Amino acid sequence: MHKIRKGDDVIVTTGRDKGKRGTVLKIVDAEHVLVEGANRVKKHQRPIPMKGVTGGIVDRDMPLHVSNVALYNPGTKKADRVGIRVLEDGRRVRYYKSNGEVIDT
């Protein structure tokens, strides 16, 4: 079970975009995530007339390492660490380390 999943609200903890909050759009691989609005770069796009793509400079979100983001806790309104707990019925759920609140139900 991964501690950060697609659709989670996260806060960037280090780097140029420190403090930015966004949604995880995609899990790129085991260690990288794509966060909406974070780690934006300008890419010089060549035109591809056969596909109808126009050329120019476009903004793109690039992947971030999973260690550089933390889950957003709406209860404390801060970034929070995540743990995994096994319930009595055998299900594994994520929970916030600060207040013990279960994320997945």
Give structural notes:
The protein has a domain at 9-79: Roll (SH3 type barrels). 0% of the residues lie in helices and 47% in strands. It has a six-stranded antiparallel beta sheet with strand order 6-3-2-1-7-8, with no helix packed on it. The protein has a two-stranded antiparallel sheet with strand order 4-5. Strands 9-10 form a two-stranded antiparallel ribbon. It has 105 residues and is an all-beta fold. 12% of the residues are buried. It contains no helices and ten strands.
| Category from helices, strands and their pairing | mainly beta
Mean pLDDT: 93
Identify the strand order in the major beta sheet: 6-3-2-1-7-8
The CATH class label of the domain at 9-79 is Mainly Beta
The count of DSSP E runs of length 2 or more, i.e. the number of strands, is 10
Helix content: under 10%
- Rg estimate, integer Å: 17 Å
**What percent strand?**
over 45%
- Gap between N and C termini: 14 Å
Tags for this entry?
105 residues; single chain; 10 strands; two-stranded antiparallel sheet; SH3 type barrels
